[in-house]
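Reader question, answered in our methods column.
A reader sent in the components of a multi-part assembly and asked whether the whole thing could be modeled at once rather than chain by chain. We filled in our standard form and ran it. Here is what they sent:
COMPLEX SIZE: four components
ENTRIES:
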Amino acid sequence: MASDHSASSAPGVPSLPPQQLATYFALMESVSLLQHQVDQHLRKEGAISYVQFQLLARLADAGGPLTMTQLADGVVYSRSGLTYQAGLLEKAGLITRDTYPDDERATLVTLTDDGAALFRRVLPGHIDAVRRLLFASLNDQDVQQLGDIMTRIRDQMRAHPPRSAAPRKRRTGRKASPPAAAGTD
Amino acid sequence: MASDHSASSAPGVPSLPPQQLATYFALMESVSLLQHQVDQHLRKEGAISYVQFQLLARLADAGGPLTMTQLADGVVYSRSGLTYQAGLLEKAGLITRDTYPDDERATLVTLTDDGAALFRRVLPGHIDAVRRLLFASLNDQDVQQLGDIMTRIRDQMRAHPPRSAAPRKRRTGRKASPPAAAGTD
DNA sequence: TATTGTTATACTCTATAACTATA
DNA sequence: TATAGTTATAGAGTATAACAATA
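And here is the structure of the entire assembly that came back:
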């Protein structure tokens, strides 16, 4: 991307300072590569996509059933998309779906033993890939700084839905708590 | 994702230190959101996808024609995928494809005036979104640090093709030079 | 023989809109 | 009426393998 290096070569044509531009590119390319490789690994090792892995991970992390809406948050951008993925996971025997007694509109998604087993099986390789690709060249301070910065960016984005955000999703009320904070509690 | 917070809760189950895990999540979620919103903007404003925008941007930045292979680098992960996207762009009149005289196996892709115009048209909004979403909460030092870190990560990944990397792409010989370095030269 | 690119094909994924059912 | 979720459907994107042509 680019041709927008000159701080203001043309009138009215906004640009980014070179430093920001380079940062933007490095960020997008890195994550694109990481996503792609991690996805490849998961498909090969577990016959699941990255999205599906994220859903299993959410369930594993929650330590219990979640409603569809809770499950969707941040992973999928449309309701039907989640229904589709959940359908695949259910067909594969990795989750079950049942009506939530307390609110019969809701669907309670539960990780099956097979689902949990699959998650445990692919996790080491996943972790390993992330460690090799993402963290291999960083020291503790780098990780700290990167985490701090990306957390700020994420919060900025969550708080900054574009002019016309998605219809209506995300209702469960995320506390914007760092995912790593929770235990298997 | 998770249930892998405990540094070593189970034997043989690798994990990541909480700090790394949180950083990983923040990074992936942020970029996912950014990609999604930027893609939305481009489709609305210019009826092109983010991938297509990246291809136009590469051509605009190059300041002249590129071969398919040069164009692909880093943006697309399969040859046929690029042919597909190039077909769309050509059909839309944004690029042309011709045989490269010096090597008749190659296809030379040229940005048309319409393509250049479209790129210029959507660029401001794109830049604006990146500025708002990505950089709004960062000061110069943050940008510097983030750029430094992500550049290292990108280089790490480029140098670290997974066990079984893609067949054979990427031949043009990237010098791993920061994208922002080049001008419209 | 290796490389560049295209085609055919099959599949995955996403999103919109219409719909059902419960609150 | 608003919310939770599903379904139908249609389109966009991706990847593999087979292919043609040039180096």
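What stands out: Helices of chain B lie at 18-46, 50-62, 68-72, 79-91, 113-135, 140-158. The domain at 18-158 of chain B is CATH 1.10.10.10 (Arc Repressor Mutant, subunit A).
Send us your own complexes using the same form.
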